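Appendix B. Raw example, untouched.
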Amino acid sequence: MAHNPVLIRAREALEKNWFHCLLADSCEEAVVQAAALIQADSLCSFGGSMSVAQSGIKKLVMERNPVLDPYDPALDEAGRLDVRRRAFACDWYLSGCNAITADGMLVNLDAYGNRVGAIGYGPAHVLIVAGSNKIVPDLAAAEARIRTHAAPANNKRLGRKTPCTLTGVCEDCDSPERICNYFQVVRKSSPRGRITVLLVDAELGL
């Protein structure tokens, strides 16, 4: 079966920008590709990505890999902070992506900076899992997607008391519960190939 042409063009753009890029026609195929990519003894960690969870890849690494899990219910706030810091030394950091531009850039907005920090530097390898719904024409469209969809929807999902949960659009608020604090654009993967983008022909995440 031929791959989705939108994903093929996105892969070409990402590879031009030094990312390693894989295509999967389903979540099941994405799990197979992740299993081949990440060795079973690799230390893994992740942010709060719905895409990584919905694809089945989080379940894969939780069952077979040593994991630094910042969402372990046994951890208190200090413990979660410690795990997020130690994640910078892991072999593989798994994350979703708020938007991927058609010319091959990754765009993310983060609450605490640990996710965008790990994507940019620290872990030996990064795996970005993204559905076809995350591909947008350009940076302006990426920011618009985040402001009018991803950020309000994630605030609502997390039960945050922010204006956007009522208005449906980012108000650039001063709420202590806001999650829109660190904005990152990754134009190229440096070193080349450190970041792998696994594009899945499915709607994943928000």
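End of appendix B.
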